[in-house]
Each structure stands twice: as structure tokens, then as C-alpha cells.
Amino acid sequence: MKNLLLAAGLLASALSLPATATTLVPLADDGAWSTFDVDALTSLSGGLEWIDLDGVDLAFSLTLSQDSVLRVVDLGFRGDRFELTVSDGITTQVLGQTSAVANPDIASEDIVIDPDLAWADTNYSKGSFLLGAGSWTVTGVLIQSADFGGAPLNATLGAVSLTAVPVPATGLLMLGASGILGLFTRRRA
Known about the structure:
Layout: H1 2-16, E1 22-26, E2 34-39, E3 57-64, E4 68-75, E5 81-87, E6 92-97, H2 115-120, E7 126-131, E8 134-144, E9 147-148, E10 151-152, E11 155-164, H3 169-188
Parallel strand pairs: 1-3
Antiparallel strand pairs: 2-11, 3-8, 4-7, 4-11, 5-6, 5-8, 9-10
């Protein structure tokens, strides 16, 4: 009986621990690309979520003072797609999926590891998502894998970037016009 209670206690302790840690990477809104990996064999969870080079779950943290565009692109072999999830710390929801693409067998494919080249190539899955001001955590998971010999490879690379949305030109013109009108009003007084 004592051994049974000990085994039950160890099982309860193991179930209460998180499956894996998460590497949280801050993402600046400067348009620079940050990469991630997916590999079911090296992922500590054995899943298809975004991971770092050590196999640890990977999430990108965003602190935005204005609307920004998050871009995601597949790298390596073409044919992969991702689903993104966003959280504000209270609620988590699906942000969207990258574009549908053909899923060729990679045995004869070239690879692209430059995010700008992959973004410009219509054969690579990509997506743009508008996020409002606030603090966000973005994660992703592979939902379609390139094939190798007719079976999903379940390993790929990808990249994300964040770019602040500029204030509309009309808004700048109005600000400039109000400043000029303010100068004229002050001179007359």
C-alpha cells in the first residue's frame, strides 16, 4: 500500500509540472526578421510548435505602442503552413494561418533560407496580421508539412517580423496644417 501511495504521489507531481519551458523572445517593430524552427524529433514536447535550437517551445513577445503588422514566412523547403496564436496574458485566440501553397515532395526541391527571398516567392507560405497597441505573445504550430517520399517531413524553418504601421499621411498633413494655423492665430493676437 505504501508503494502505491508513493507511486500515486510521484504521478501527481509529474502531471502538475509543465510539459516544457518556453523561450520568450522580444520582437522589435523594426521589420527585422527573427527565425524559428519546427522539428517533431528534437522538440522537447514531440510536437509541431515553434521551437528554438534547443527544442524548447518558442514564443515572441510584442509590446506595441501603435498598430503593427506581424509577418510570418515559411523557410527551407516550400510546402509548409503555420497557424498563429496570440495572447494578451488573459485570453488566447487563433490569429490566423499562413497562405495555402502546393505541397511538393522535397526530394527535388531547392531550399530558401533568406526570409526576404521567401516572402517574394509565391511558392512559399506567408501571412500578414495586424495587431493593435498592447502587449502580446505570439506562438505558432506547423499545420501542413512538406513531404519527403510521400510522408510529412514535420521539420522546417520559418521567420517572423514586426513593422509599426506609419501614421497616415493625411494625419500628418492635418497636424502640420493645425500647427501652421496656430502660428497665424498667435501672430494676429
